[in-house]
Design a protein that fits this description.
Length: 197
């Protein structure tokens, strides 16, 4: 089919904004980790993202508060500010069989390395992949438009990810961010732009 490889900033507003409509599981208790882990461990491809509490202060690093994994119909939001950077999540990130797909995912991994030294395997950065495929526009919003045909909202990106309870817009946003990574990769596969190795 061939995808458009460029979209201007001005044209972004012409596209409808979509969000993840599958099942979202927020994990904020350690006892809920295992069932999510066992489900994700069976997947071949999972979308991946993180959210950090913004600091708005120069020189003060933000810390990762949330780690998201998504399949096409289920998203798991691990609130690591509450449950910690648990071994099950580390195992998923280091698993050589499961592809973790993200946008600027290497930055996410670097941020997680600040919490604990981890080994990451089978990590695919859609920004880098898109550039290799000749895309001139990259990033979550533009790649969503060019590959999936819709935009996504970034409205709550800089909100407080360590609130006692995440809001519905935060939960939907976080799930959508990981889900589109899964969807973009699978669309590139299905359209023959990339090969499943």
């Amino acid at each position: 089919m061939g995808f458009k490889k460029y979209i201007s900033k001005e044209d972004v507003k012409d596209y409808s904004i979509e969000k993840f409509t599958g099942k979202i599981i927020v994990i904020d208790k350690k006892e809920d980790v295992l069932s999510a882990y066992l489900y994700l461990k069976k997947q071949n491809i999972i979308g991946f993202d993180t959210e950090s509490k913004p600091t708005f202060k120069k020189g003060v690093p933000s810390r990762v508060s949330l780690i998201q994994f998504s399949t096409e119909d289920k998203a798991f939001l691990f609130r690591i500010n509450k449950i910690g950077f648990v071994d099950e999540i580390i195992d998923l990130i280091s698993d050589e069989k499961i592809k973790k797909i993200g946008i600027a995912i290497n930055d996410d991994i670097k941020d997680l390395q600040k919490i604990k030294k981890i080994e990451s395997n089978n990590i695919i950065d859609l920004n880098q992949l898109a550039l290799k495929l000749g895309f001139e526009s990259i990033g979550a919003v533009k790649l969503s438009i060019l590959i999936l045909g819709f935009s996504i909202s970034k409205a709550v990106r800089l909100s407080n990810w360590e609130k006692l309870e995440l809001t519905k817009p935060q939960i939907e946003y976080a799930a959508t961010d990981a889900w589109i990574c899964n969807m973009i990769y699978n669309k590139l596969l299905n359209e023959g732009e990339i090969k499943n190795s």
